Amino acid sequence: MMLMECFILGMLTFLMTGVRCEVTEVFAEAGSQAVLPCKCTCTSSTEPAIVWSKVNKGTVWRKQKNGLQYRGSSWLEKGIKRVDCPHSQFERRDYSLQIKNVREDDGGLYSCSIEFEDQIVKNIVMLRVITVSFSPPVLISRSYVSITCGVTPWLNEASVQWMLNNSPFIPQTGITLNRDTSKSVVSGKVTEGLTGNWTCVVSYKGKAGRASAALSVRGIIQPSNDNTKVYAAVGSAVTLPCVFSPDLDPSIPTWEKLQPGSLLKPVPGHLRPSFSPSKQSPKLPSDMSVSVKEVEFKDKGKYRCSATVQGQKLTRDIQLVVAKIDSSVLSKKKDSVTLTCQLSDMSEVTDYEWVHVTYDINGTQSVGSIQKGKTLSISQVSEENWGEWVCRFSSKDGILGNVTYHAQLMSGLRGQKSSSFSQNTGAVVGLSLLLLVLLLILAQMYKNHRRRRRIFQYPALETIVHTISNEREERERSRVKM
């Protein structure tokens, strides 16, 4: 077809001198900008007439010798010009056509005609538009999808290569790769391994074009993969995540703990009553996560979150790994204890670290030296070991979690400390009683003083009191004489 079009254009202009027919392949991604080349090595000093046209579609853009420019009406989109020939390039005899926001129907054969006084130069450009599309356009996890690479117009001689996340795509089990006379198609069941950026690379005669599109799947977005591990220490709080895409409306949400059974068919069981739904965020109405305030070591194991979306049941398996510290007293050194960092699943752990954390009277935290290893031996009679011992466990990708052991003094030292405390307490109690007696004496003296002041406020009453007192004394003396 391309040679036939060139032959027709050549027949229309064979009577003109200097006519030549050049064919150029141009690839462009739909939605991008395409540049159709048109250059000449003409030596004429006069301004040429330029005509860009699309075969069977008429004029696209043209410029007369007097400088006036025109565009085809179909190349105006809401008043915005989609085609242009930059004036700044004319001095270099470059009359390339720029097409903005390329569409599939822009693909086809274009001709560029440069007309001087005694010379006509014609270039033929084939624009091929590449698109990557998904069917259906909205995907639910574990549904079937077709990923199509289309080239308009299609080129049978071209080679097509698929790339996923910038790496060559190798078909997996259950994934098919087909090519017919108009497209290349990858089809199969949507899994986590198929999500990401898909790129179709089309090559022909040393030239290549590409188009890309991102494949995103609606469903359970957190965690993104099955068998995700969540780490928690005994006694701490933990949340098992299960978040669906915000625009989905999952129904019949269910949580189960998978009991040991066959590898392919684990036995579902019930959650402990302590597990409860997490508080839903207004921004995440599809959050089906569950949480527990205090983890127990028996909570370890696999859990399954499931819900129904558009008639399809979506599930996600999560493994809860529980960590604890076991302590044991050495038989030879009864004042020493060995701490062991224990995890219900250690398959991802590559490193253990022990960090000594202490606090002063103001609550200020200080961190001591770091020691390596799964186990640690400390002396219980040394004040240097008081405080917290934190076991941090890590994988090759970073820290997974930690668990804390609270170190205390041995009972003997605690008894001495208690005896000393009792003596100090007795002294404080004795001083408190003495102070109480002094306060009572002062209170009685203050009352007597107040009573005398009330009496002395009345002189007549004071005289009567003295008179009565004198008479009482005389009567007493008279009785003594008799």
In short:
The chain has 482 residues and is of the alpha+beta class.
Describe this structure as you would to a colleague.
The structure is a single chain. The protein is α+β, with helices and mostly antiparallel strands. Helices cover 17% and strands 44% of the residues. Strands 1, 3, 4, 5, 10, 11, 12, 15 and 16 form a 9-stranded mixed β-sheet that branches. Strands 20, 23, 24, 27, 28, 29 and 32 form a 7-stranded mixed β-sheet that branches. The chain has a 4-stranded antiparallel β-sheet with strand order 14-13-17-18, with no helix packed on it. A hairpin with a 2-residue loop joins β6 (76-77) and β7. The longest helix has 45 residues, at 411-455. The radius of gyration is 46 Å and the shape is elongated. It starts with a helix and ends with a helix. Mean pLDDT is 82; it is low at 1-20 and 410-422.
Give the secondary structure arrangement, pairings included.
Elements (H helix, E strand, L loop, with lengths): L1 H12 L7 E9 L4 E3 L12 E6 L3 E6 L5 E3 L4 E2 L2 E2 L1 E2 L12 E3 L8 E8 L4 E16 L8 E9 L6 E6 L2 E2 L7 E4 L3 E7 L6 E9 L2 E9 L4 E3 L5 E6 L4 E3 L2 E2 L6 E9 L7 E3 L6 E2 L12 E3 L8 E9 L2 E18 L6 E8 L7 E9 L5 E8 L2 E5 L7 E9 L2 E10 L3 H45 L3 H23 L1
Parallel strand pairs: 1-11, 20-28
Antiparallel strand pairs: 2-9, 3-4, 3-10, 4-5, 6-7, 8-9, 10-11, 11-12, 12-16, 13-14, 13-17, 15-16, 17-18, 19-22, 21-26, 23-24, 23-27, 25-26, 27-28, 28-29, 29-32, 30-31, 30-33, 33-34
